[in-house]
């Protein structure tokens, strides 16, 4: 995803955007990848057998330098490839177990050891040589003996990455996922935009234009239509299971592809429309919102995390705590009461739209977080002072929707 680095003078905070692209290859890697998978499962076994449990029953992974050194030496036995691959294997093993640990603490996993079945390996930058002029990427398999060469000179994305530094590569049997790093500077951005993620819209607070809504009704409708078709086919499973399952798989694939296409266009058009903005989103967890079967189905149709993930590849994204964003008065900070889709503040005696209050509070939290990250210097808003009361309206100032054939969002209201 992305990393943040701060300079020595504590004034400039850079945001590292990682761009990822897929290329195909015909190099015979199955034996090599199989051995990497075996080493990965051995690494998981060794770490798993050395897990300690606290008094509260929480697992604690062994992370001492001595343990990691012994683990590395153990995995290097009978290893015929570059030793740096073992470092990637250990890193992947810890990533798998950290993910299991996080879900186990939340009650989503049991004490069942994870097992890796897919063939892949992470390639460290120390094993990669990138010739920017020729567009060639040379990956060491066996030092001074065996190399994999990928030529990206004629790939569609070459012009975008030719001046960027290459990052980690993930190798699979017939394809490779390449990553390139691009640095963005917080001080280069002029605007902070707060984004409130809702079931059928993204509500944005812009410090100059005020309340902006991006309509996601089409995305919700798309998922709903496919879900109804899939539910109908599931009712016919007993009559002809094989035929119905094939149709269900095709529908799932079409649904997934159409949703992915919509999200790519949405995030690209959003980042182009606000090219000088830092986007602030809520760090939402769907599972904590579940209430009943009907509402849960509607929540599952949202793509909040996917939108954040995709737009973070294109611009700077900040996540803030979502607690009480829609029930805290943006003027006096007191708790507000809900009333027929509105929220009412008893202290201010004002009534505001719930979505507007949500995106405004997210905007303010994002400003505070950026100011903290930048050592108190904050972020500019094109020299204007934000007046919240003037921007509080009963309806969105602007409404946009995704343009399937264009570069920018369509203004519809």
Structure description:
- By secondary structure, the chain is α+β, with helices and mostly antiparallel strands.
- The chain has three domains: 2-28 and 124-186, no CATH class; 30-105; 189-222 and 256-411, 2-Layer Sandwich (Nucleotidyltransferase, domain 5), CATH 3.30.420.
- It is 36% helix and 25% strand.
- It has ten helices and 21 strands.
- It has a seven-stranded mixed sheet. Strands 1, 2, 5, 9, 10 and 11 form a six-stranded antiparallel sheet that branches.
- Helix 1 packs across helix 3 (84-105).
- The longest helix is centred in the middle third of the chain and has 33 residues, at 241-273.
- It is globular and about 75 Å long.
Summary, kept brief:
This protein has 413 residues and is of the alpha+beta class.
Question: How many independent structural domains?
Answer: 3
- What number is the mean pLDDT? 86
CATH topology of the largest domain: Nucleotidyltransferase, domain 5
Q: Classify the oligomer.
A: single chain
Overall radius of gyration: 25 Å
Percentage of residues in helical conformation: 25-40%
Which sheet architecture does the biggest sheet show?
7 strands, mixed
Large-scale geometry: globular
Q: Give, in spatial order, the strands making up the sheet with the most strands.
A: 16-15-12-13-14-20-21
CATH architecture descriptor name of the largest domain: 2-Layer Sandwich
Number of strands: 21
What's the CATH first level of the largest domain? Answer: Alpha Beta
Alpha plus pi helix count: 10
The secondary-structure class comes to: alpha+beta
- Runs in which pLDDT lies below 50 for 5 or more consecutive residues are 5-12, 380-385
Strand portion, in percent? 15-25%
Cα separation of the termini: 34 Å
């Amino acid at each position: 995803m992305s990393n943040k680095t701060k300079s020595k003078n504590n004034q400039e905070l850079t945001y590292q955007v990682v761009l990822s692209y897929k290329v195909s290859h015909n190099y015979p890697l199955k034996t090599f990848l199989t051995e990497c998978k075996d080493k990965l499962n051995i690494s998981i076994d060794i770490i798993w057998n050395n897990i300690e449990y606290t008094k509260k029953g929480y697992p604690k992974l062994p992370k001492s330098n001595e343990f990691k050194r012994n683990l590395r030496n153990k995995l290097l036995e009978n290893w015929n490839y570059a030793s740096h691959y073992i470092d990637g294997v250990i890193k992947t093993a810890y990533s798998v177990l950290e993910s299991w640990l996080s879900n186990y603490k939340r009650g989503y996993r049991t004490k069942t050891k994870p097992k890796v079945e897919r063939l892949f390996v992470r390639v460290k930058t120390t094993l990669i040589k990138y010739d920017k002029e020729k567009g060639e990427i040379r990956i060491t398999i066996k030092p001074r003996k065996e190399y994999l060469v990928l030529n990206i000179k004629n790939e569609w994305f070459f012009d975008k990455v030719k001046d960027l530094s290459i990052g980690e590569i993930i190798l699979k049997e017939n394809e490779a996922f390449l990553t390139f790093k691009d640095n963005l500077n917080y001080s280069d951005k002029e605007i902070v935009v707060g984004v409130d993620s809702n079931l059928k819209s993204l509500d944005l607070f812009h410090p100059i234009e005020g309340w902006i809504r991006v309509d996601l009704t089409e995305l919700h409708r798309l998922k709903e239509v496919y879900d109804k078709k899939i539910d109908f086919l599931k009712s016919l499973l007993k009559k002809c299971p094989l035929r119905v399952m094939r149709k269900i798989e095709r529908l799932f694939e079409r649904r997934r592809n159409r949703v992915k296409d919509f999200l790519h266009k949405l995030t690209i058009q959003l980042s182009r429309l606000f090219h000088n903005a830092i986007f602030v989103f809520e760090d939402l967890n769907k599972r904590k919102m579940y209430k009943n079967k009907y509402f849960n189905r509607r929540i599952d149709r949202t793509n909040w995390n996917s939108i954040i993930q995709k737009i973070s590849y294109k611009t700077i994204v900040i996540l803030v705590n979502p607690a009480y964003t829609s029930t805290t008065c943006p003027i006096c900070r007191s708790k507000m009461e809900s009333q027929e889709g509105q929220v009412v503040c008893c202290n201010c005696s004002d009534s505001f739209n719930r979505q507007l209050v949500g995106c405004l509070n997210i905007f303010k939290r994002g400003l505070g977080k950026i100011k903290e990250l930048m050592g108190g210097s904050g972020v500019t808003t094109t020299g204007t002072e934000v007046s919240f009361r003037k921007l509080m309206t009963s309806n969105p100032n602007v409404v946009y929707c995704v343009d399937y054939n264009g570069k920018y969002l369509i203004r519809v209201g």
